[in-house]
Amino acid sequence: MKTIINQEIVRQIEMAALVLEKPRTYSELDLIEYFKVSAQTIRRDAEKLREMGVDIHSNRKTYEIFHCDLKTLNELICSYLALNKFDSIKNLNLIRKKYGQKTLRLFVNMLNAISKRHLIEILYNKNAHEINVRKNISPVSLMRAGRNIYLFAYEDDSHDKPRNFLLEKITDIKFTNIKSKIQHIRSMPEFFKTSWGVFTGGDIYDVKLRFSKEMGEEIKDKFYMETQQMHSEDNCFIITFKVNLSYEFISWVMGWGNLVEVLEPPLLKDIIIAKANEIINKYK
Question: What is this structure's pTM?
Answer without folding.
Answer: 0.65
